Amino acid sequence: MEYKGREVDLSYIKSCSNEELHDLAFLLREKIIETVASTGGHLSSNLGTVELTLGLAKVFDLDKDQVIFDVGHQTYAYKIITGRDLSSLRKKDGVSPFSSTNESKYDIIDNGHSSTSLSYALAIAEMKKAHGDDSFTIAFIGDGSITNGLSFEALNEIGARKDLNLIIVLNDNGMSISKATGSLSKQFLKLRHSRFYLKRVLAFRKLGKIKGFGWLYKFFRHIKNFFKHIIVRDNLFESLNIPYNGPFDGNKIKEVKTALEFAKNVKGPIILHFKTVKGKGYELAQDDEVGHWHGIEPFDIKTGKLIKEFTEDYSYYASRVIYNMLVEDEKTYLICPAMIHGSYLEQCFLDYRERTFDVGIAEEHAIVYGAALSLCHYHPIISIYSTFLQRSYDELIHDLCRNKNGSIVFIDRAGLIGKDGPSHQGIYDVSYLKTIPNTYIFHPYSKEDLDVILARKNEIYESKVNLFVRLPKEKIISDISDYNRINGADTLIISVGNLGVGLFKELNGFDTLLIKQIHPLEEEQLKFILQYKNIILYDPYSTNLGLESSIAHFLALNSYHGNYKAYSLPVCYIESMRIDEQLEKYELDIETMKIKIVNNAD
To answer: Helices 195-207 and 214-231: crossing angle, nearest 10°?
Structure first.
């Protein structure tokens, strides 16, 4: 990217004046909006962090000082100024939508989920100190990440550390950290983040290092703290013994620079609290209150309309089923960790405020909360993305399933998810859920399959089972066809979901079996498959440790002597590209599968 005839890079930013940085922020926003309109991606959060990113590049030496972005979806401006072409965002072999160590030396970790930056930063800062490295480690956290329990665990540890060059940049784009009340407290906060105040703090601290003046420094610090605690109550961070300064305006270059330069001169960990405007620079995103512009598919910049027409998918139809469950049963409660808009649950939360709970980025809490509702004889529904569910594995084992609870968990974004990259592919849930007792995993392929859940909800809750319903990112159809064709062929094709149905429609001369309950296998009903000479499994929704290994285990237990061949996803991290490209890469697209099946059956 060029700016006034010069290539924008870290060295150029060092030479910029405040006015030039302000203009550059405008240019970066234009580039981000233009790119996301074309490729889709995270828009609002990136528009809000432009000045903070430029401030870091201006004040710190990013070739030595390390910035760890939490979540990673706040990094678009950072990617541009560290030499990456954002136009290939989320495309095959293109720029990752999150931090990626394979992509740049300036990305310190690979990530896509939240609340890990503080733990990373603490360990890195500790190792630097141990080896005499005086460079800075900066944890850039925000967009709700601070609310996750993992962040609090790290903060508790950071509060006990001293003399680390660790700076926590808290990007607060709407989340309340602590409320200061009354006019005096507001005046104190205004004073506290002024340039005059910050410079006086540094001068005052130097007084304590002068021989013979240590007692004077301690005396006045005690007096200052006494009056501060009268005027403004401690916030969370200071109660954990971590120095805190702010809030600052994170969208004003001059204020960002002042705060960051101050932090460089403070020994020990410090938190800088910045207020930013999520969606800044694009009016539609800036006015968004429901999260529509947080993650968005390609859109028209002028109108804001999505380029691709809306398609009723599994998530959307499941949201209608969930709504009807709330209508029909006053004991039903809905829990969703921060993904109301992504799972189309707005109407549920609007019409049933007292029975719907958005717990934020707190997946572990969501599971235990649901378990507790079941213990109280209520009917919990938990709606959660597949890759967010994996964060709560211990709670699934120890709390939800062990306590003989009844629950329905809708696993959104199950299977390949496409462009969001390796952190967001929902391909692992079957393999780990089936290791947990009292779990049932259901993979629908039609509206009618989801309607069955609505009809049998009371039976599910009364039997105290935990039903996990996988919702792939695919178009849903109304289809009551029977795809179990048992006509006496010597080869049986077993599959699951829309892609399985699509494959069956392309094949002739084979018996076919579509499995919906993928765990536990209905073994008595499956014994008929032992008669086949060839059994071929096609599961493009899970790894080979999912349904593939379950079928293999069943066949081994029953001394099957025929030929079993399975085609599933490998246990690996799958990079950003379209779903059809992912299927082609792993030779699981329907055209390739037709050839493989015919060859294997010969």
So the answer is: 140
Within 13 A of 221's CA, how many CA atoms are on the CB side? 14
Q: At what angle do helices 214-231 and 183-192 cross, to 10 degrees?
A: 140
Q: How far apart are CA 326 and CA 352, in angstroms?
A: 8
Q: Which two tokens stand for residue 225?
A: 């703290």
Pairing of strands 270-275, 244-249: parallel
The Cα–Cα gap between 136 and 249 comes to 22
> How far apart are alpha carbons 114 and 142 in whole angstroms?
9
* H-helix segments, 340-398: 346-351, 363-375, 386-389, 393-395
Return the structure tokens found at 180.
């200061």
Cα–Cα dist 38/307, whole Å: 9
Residue 329's CB is within 10 A of a number of other CB atoms, namely 17
Burial 109-119 (b: 16+ CB within 10 A, else e): bbbbbbbbbbb
Helix 253-264 to helix 195-207 angle, to the nearest 10 degrees? Answer: 10
| Cα separation, 174 vs 361, whole angstroms | 14
> Could you tell me the two tokens for 165?
């060059």
The C-alpha atoms of residue 259 and residue 252 are separated, in whole angstroms, by 11
CA 397 remoteness from chain centre: 22
Cα torsion angle, 284, 289, 294, 296, sign: negative
Element (H, E) at 277: none
Cα distance between residue 542 and residue 105, in whole Å: 32
H or E element at residue 192: helix 183-192
What pLDDT, in 10s, does the model give residues 346-362? 999 999 999 999 998 89
Distance of CA 433 to the CA centre of its chain: 20
Can you point out the beta strands (E) in 281-340? 295-296, 332-336
Position 478 pLDDT exceeds 90? yes
pLDDT score for 180:
38
Task: Evaluate if pTM is beyond 0.85.
Answer: yes
Q: Is the Cα dihedral 304, 310, 313, 316 positive or negative? A: positive
- What single letter denotes the amino acid at residue 78? Y
Residue type for position 513: L
Distance CA 602, CA 594 (A): 13
pLDDT score for 147: 80
Question: What pLDDT does residue 234 have?
Answer: 60
